[in-house]
Amino acid sequence: MSSIIRIDLILHFFSTLPSVAVMLEALLLLFFSSPVVMVPPLSAPVACKRCCDPLGPAEGSGDQRAMPEFSHIPEVRTFINMTILKGDKGDRGDRGTPGKGGEQGSPGSIGPTGPQGSKGQAGLPGEPCKVQYSAFSVGRRKSLHTQDAYQTVIFDTVFVNLHEHFDMFEGKFLCHIPGIYFFNVNIHTWNFKETYLHIMHNDTERAIVYAQPSDRSIMQSQSLMLELELRDEVWLRLYKRERENAIYSDDVDVYITFSGYLVTPK
Ligand SMILES: *[C@@H]1O[C@H](CO)[C@@H](O)[C@H](O)[C@H]1NC(C)=O
Ligand SMILES: *[C@@H]1O[C@H](CO)[C@@H](O)[C@H](O)[C@H]1NC(C)=O
């Protein structure tokens, strides 16, 4: 029969056997806490076996006798649990090389809208004359007679008015691009009335369109080029009543035209 006994009992037992005891005691001290399996003490020298031996017919039936030379001492067999022989934990190893990147995951969902940012700084001033083209051509379908004061010739028909540089309400071309401009005026005279109007640059007369009174009405024209600054105005001005004059037109045809365009910017 086998049994498990405490280690101190084993040591006590081996202390009676001088030579072997010293060796075994040291061994047992080494594995102080390990469970030790041993056969029963002196009083029962019956057959023994390790608890982990498989049960066989030879052990079960025949080999029950104890060895004669050990009949007076117990047979001690130790089972050493290797798990507790493990040493202390070693030093930490060097860091390994980085592993390969994993597969890309699926995109996450769109996050919530963030708060509105603060207002940005004002940009640099833009270029007022960035447009490099300017052209207009307008006409008038109504005749015009002098009044007590000078009057601006107003037009009612637009042929061309690029970027609205010609103000139809004021009857004036306004310079958005400084440069050299070409202007042309065509009018039709009135029978027995004088024709007397000016091409105005701001409030300065620059050229006249003139015809003496006649029994024959005729087409008259004037052309010129002007160098204009930004916001300069070019327009037509009819004279005052002190000189009875008029220009002719009718609903059927356009007799009066005023045209201008940028020749070259500054
Ligand atoms: C060995 O010892 C460990 C820790 O004490 C224990 O978990 C394990 O069951 C033992 N192994 C055997 C075969 O007794
Ligand atoms: C023409 O008039 C405009 C507007 O009043 C002004 O800005 C510009 O300097 C004037 N041009 C000239 C040549 O006087």
UniProtKB/TrEMBL annotation:
The chain crosses the membrane at residues 9-32. One of its GO terms (cellular component) is collagen trimer. Residues 86-97 have a biased composition (Basic and acidic residues). Keywords: Collagen, Extracellular matrix, Membrane, Secreted, Signal, Transmembrane, Transmembrane helix. Residues 86-124 are annotated as: Disordered. Residues 129-266 form the C1q domain. InterPro entries: C1q_dom, Collagen, Collagen/C1q_domain, Tumour_necrosis_fac-like_dom. PANTHER family: C1Q DOMAIN-CONTAINING PROTEIN, EMILIN ELASTIN MICROFIBRIL INTERFACE-LOCATED PROTEIN ELASTIN MICROFIBRIL INTERFACER. This is C1q and TNF related 6. It comes from Oryzias latipes (Japanese rice fish). The lineage of its organism: Eukaryota, Metazoa, Chordata, Craniata, Vertebrata. The gene is C1QTNF6.
